[in-house]
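Section 3.1: Structural characterization of target chains.
Under the original work plan, the team committed to producing a structural model for every single-chain target entering the pipeline before any wet-lab resources were allocated. The record below documents one such target. The sequence was received from the expression subgroup and is listed exactly as submitted; it comprises 493 residues.
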Amino acid sequence: MVSAQPAASNPAGAAAPDGADSASNQTSSAPADAIHWGSVIFSGSVRTRVEAWDWFEGSANGRYTLSDTLIRLSLSQVVDNFDWQLEFAVPVLLGLPDNALAPAPQLQSGLGANYYSANHNSTNAAMIFPKQGFVRFKRLFDHDGESVRAGRFEFFDGAEVAPQDSTLAALKREHVDQRLIGNFGFADVERSFDGAEYTAHGSSLNLTVMSALPTRGVFQVDGWGNLRTSVSYIGLTGQLPGRKSSSEWRLFGIYYDDFRHVLKTDNRPAAARLADMDNIRIGTYGGHFINVTKTPCGPVDFTFWGAFQTGAWGRQADRAEAYDAEIGWQPHILTRLRPWLRAGYTFGSGDKNPSDGVHGTFFQLLPTPRVYARYPFYNMMNLEDAAAELVFRPGKRLTLRSDAHSLRLASPNDLWYLGGGAFQPWTFGFTGRNAGGARSLANVWDLSADYAFNAHFAAGAYYGYAIGKAVLHKIYPDGPSSPYGFVELNYKF
């Protein structure tokens, strides 16, 4: 879910996305009153959630409740020229459904089915594994802004710089970060990266270079190993501060190489996919621009994110693109509620012809998908998403948010895609269902409430409802609509 934060760390009053909040991302900071053993800091967090699923009605059981908890315990030390962190994670999954898997095209009925099948068909699963373990060397060549980090760490594309302007910072957390690389923070096991990262940070520019292998995890409680999949990232971010208008821009490039030789998910016939176990080698190039301008009627913000892809999808050439454009307004009305109205449109290309030798589906790599799909039954692959959002921030501790989405496939000849990237050696990481030539997917409405009691304890609740359209009517004719909800508690120390 979108976890509430203390007002001190979130001056815009907007909740931080999964994987980017201080409760679940302890890579570089710990609470001020954390336990100290000399200069070594012991800190941690506990997130526990109860989820109620009522998946689109099919031949499997899509109505179930599960309990999931993620415990993270960390030791860290910061000194003048280096710092280090060693963190362990303990995911605990209880009450996973053993009858929520159906034959194609219906497949998994919600994330509970993913957890069950990823953990050797177990209804309960738990494990302890190293979540992070890295050393960071700072002040390279006597330059204060340079550092190198090596080992196992979390990485969020787009999050290299935290803008000083609170609205820009909130826009980045909710609408830019982790679109292509993230820790899959909503999942109960999450993802890390084994590799190295170089950062050079100046007064207005930041250069970040990272190359790593993603770890196992996400749905599988065993997160010890990594995967035969590499990702390399380079990003240049610039700040444009001002009195009435502040902006940030970023240019990035990502090279992704999946050499696991697993069956790919795409819209080709099964025989063609079985005959193609060649690597996926894709370059993704793009950027973002965000701006907030103060006006007499209240701050107005604009967000644009875009990327294109080229390379090889196994034996096919790869050509795809995606973009997101949004506008927001914080009017000077209902000042006690501090409303924020936003609207936007997201496009991720789909493949128009499965037999032309060109893969045209935008590939989302290794994201945290739920930041952009709060009811997690879709991602931005082969998708058009017209959305509206309303946020109320009464007081400094409470955030209320409601979204409405109109979803349809970019190409009716492609699939309806779900998932968030590689997490097992033998599982591709994305699944797809045949749309049968239909295009309209669903209308979705949701509501969330997040409350930070203090710097340590926060709670939240979420409810979403998907009204299925033509695609879902074809796949789930007996019940193409679906509610989903959960309650969550977060504690950090």
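The CA atoms of residues 199 and 265 lie 35 Å apart.
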